[in-house]
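Folding follows sequence. Below is one example:
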Amino acid sequence: MKAVITGASSGIGRELAKILCGERNNTVLGVGRDKTRLSLLAEELRDCFIPVQADLSRVEGVYVVFKATREYLGEVDLLVNNAGFGVYKKIIEHSVEEVVSLVNVNFIAPLILTKELLNLMRHGSVVVFVVTAGVYVLLESLPLYGASKVALHYAVKALRREIRDRGVHVLAVYPGVVNTEFHIRAGYSLRGGLDPRRVAEEIIKAIEKKKSEVYIPRYLVTAKLLAPILPGYKVPVKTR
């Protein structure tokens, strides 16, 4: 299997790369902004892992990934749009640069990258979008992040229908709060949260079963049913 994973230098993406590289005949092209971390992961996973440094907050970064994929893989069996970015601020407190970068990483980059890599995908390939179960509530702590993920959630449903005839399967992943450096980079420490390894393992199972959606933990599927009456949600954090 030839796979492309964005946000591969830490969290869910890193764990996905490690799982896939633990199996025979897999090659993972891992995308991230941190060159040092990518290099360390490449040393750990050896020939299975191809590190690609790219900044997906800029459209140019998407084409860095596309060109590297075409050069090193030639074709793609699995694309995991995992990279994500959020800031603990009210919408009106975000700078213009933060708004543009956040929307690019969470919404625009996954769609453009999928669109460009479709020409390298064979029948039976899978595209994964890591969304968030937070699309069903108002994320009061991360409102702009939530808005960008709602947009992705909507687009994924349309995209699934559009590329069905190509034989490309689309999986949308809706995890709860995951204990990754996402929160640390925003200036907060998370209280609890899901183990990223567990999330990665559930994603792999969903890919193998060709599911269209997966909620992690599974009980979060109730959020989809109760969305009209659910209140806003504040991510449980504490200042450092």
